[in-house]
Design goal:
By secondary structure, this protein is an alpha/beta fold. It has eight helices and twelve strands.
Length: about 210
């Protein structure tokens, strides 16, 4: 489920957007000020941020700037009644990917969210493409179907590109019951997808981005 952090101090609009997004399968956390948003991002991971700009104490632009400076690269969309070009430009300068002007149709928000997430969630290594939003795996233009356990291996390895995923983590999330079974499954994946999966001896496995 896609996790959304919604920062909106208009409680009526916040409730409306919360209900809309949850009806379409999103998991929404709502906050009303930047301080609450910072606290939530410290303890939780989100797939996308929806931030209002005009807020008390700290505005949405300053909030996003702080998050980016802390190496938080979560995709972000501003929603605001402010149509000043300078403000919009500042929003993009600090790292927002989109800007929706109030008032807007609910369908517009859904279209922009899904378009942004589909783009952000596509991971490509050589000729293998994995959409972490839909779970689809493609080799060139052909969709690949895998068993649950092999799918989980791809999911964990692709989401941790250039990082080593421990054998213990992989065994816990799959249906393999031994390191030998895991090793055989990895070997079959490498052959089936022509994918370079490195064995970090005594630790786990990794896929590199180059």
């Amino acid at each position: 489920m896609i996790k959304v952090l919604l920062l909106e101090d208009d409680t009526v609009l916040s409730k409306t957007l919360d209900e809309l997004l949850e009806q379409h399968g999103f998991e929404v956390t709502t906050v009303t000020n930047a301080e609450e948003a910072l606290d939530k991002t410290f303890y939780n991971n989100y797939d996308i941020y929806l931030f209002d700009i005009n807020l008390p104490n700290m505005n949405g632009i300053d909030l996003l700037r702080s998050l980016k400076e802390a190496d938080d690269n979560t995709p972000s969309i501003f929603i605001s009644a402010n149509q000043d070009i300078e403000t919009i430009a500042k929003g993009f300068e600090v790292g927002a990917e989109d800007y929706i002007k109030k008032p807007f149709m609910p369908e517009e928000l859904l279209i922009r969210l899904n378009a942004k997430l589909s783009k952000e969630m596509m991971i490509t290594i050589n000729d293998i493409r994995y959409n972490t939003l839909s779970g689809d795996i493609f080799k060139k233009d052909k969709k690949i179907y895998l068993s649950y356990s092999k799918f989980k291996l791809i999911d964990m390895l692709f989401k941790n590109i250039d990082k080593t995923v421990s054998k213990e983590e992989l065994l816990e999330e799959t249906e393999y019951h031994s390191e030998n079974a895991l090793r055989v499954a990895i070997a079959k994946l490498k052959t089936h997808l022509n994918l370079e999966i490195k064995n970090i001896r005594g630790v786990g496995y990794t896929i590199e981005s180059y």
